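My main concern about presentation is that the manuscript never shows what a single data entry looks like. In essence, backbone conformation is discretised, so a fold becomes a row of integers matching the chain in length. An entry of this sort, consisting of the sequence and the corresponding backbone structure tokens, reads as follows:
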Amino acid sequence: MTSLKAAITTVNGWVPEDILDNKQLEQMVDTNDEWIQTRTGIKERRILKIPGEGTSYMAAKAIEGLLEKRGIDANDIDVLICATITPDMLFPSTANLICEKIGAKNALSFDLAAACSGFIYALETGSNYIKTGQYKKVVVVGADKMSAIVDYTDRSTCILFGDGAGAVLLEPNEDGLGLQDAILKTDGAGKDLLRAKGHGSADPLTPDNILKGEHFFYQEGKAVFKFAVTRMADSAADIMLRNGLTGENVAYLVPHQANKRIIEATAKRMGIGMDKVTLNIQRYGNTTAATIPLCLWEWEKAFKKGDNIILAAFGGGFTWGSVFLKWAYDS
């Protein structure tokens, strides 16, 4: 009996044209380029400045390019999943708005919120739709406009984030290529360490909590770093062990781009050199759910059919995990 898998058949990304570099941040908060690069690896990030446009705008741009590359129409999409923590609005979903923007009239669509782990959570979810045999074309897009919730007077967080979107198309594969395995975890104990508090039903936005800055992103950096560096590395090592992989037969690690030191620790735990690690944090910063698909987009030409690739992420909540896939095509 043939085992049906979900394979990535096309990738695409989109980032805004406006750049916020470290020199500009030096004029905004008490920081400097050397300090930022030493601790994070970030040189610049992209910011969406188009008035009235949000996450759905960037996601739609990424998906339009995806459809053009694959040579299909928006109405061919069966399922569209948007991984984001910066939706355009509470409802309708950002996925709903994306479908309207790209002209997709036949798709089941919804948002998935798992912070920086959102893309790999959504990828596994989309894979399961394919494996039912009922759905043939599933679009997974990771997109976030972090500039909408970042406090640009807080030097500890405003240096980290940028805006962007990346999308993949999942299609059925009967040759053993595509998503092989996933390890996805959650620990709600992180709710007070990494959050955007003042947006939900427990603490709705009011003039008072806006004055307190509770509508902004918040994190306790040292505690988050300690947890992230352990969990992200553990999940990557665990998925390798479970599937009989070694550092030699892993072609690439595609990690969430939160901090270069976390990425280096993950690669070391996996037993691979940095030459096998995709990095674009220096150009885009942390684009949350968009980091991994943006890396897939930029490294697409380097990937070869059959390559063993590990995706690894860590995000607020806490959420974390890894995905093992076999790349399905030569670019």
Summary: Residues 180-326 form a domain with the Peroxisomal Thiolase; Chain A, domain 1 fold (CATH 3.40.47.10). Residues 181 and 242 are 9 Å apart (CA to CA). The chain has two domains: 5-176, 180-326. The first strand starts at residue 5 and ends at 14.
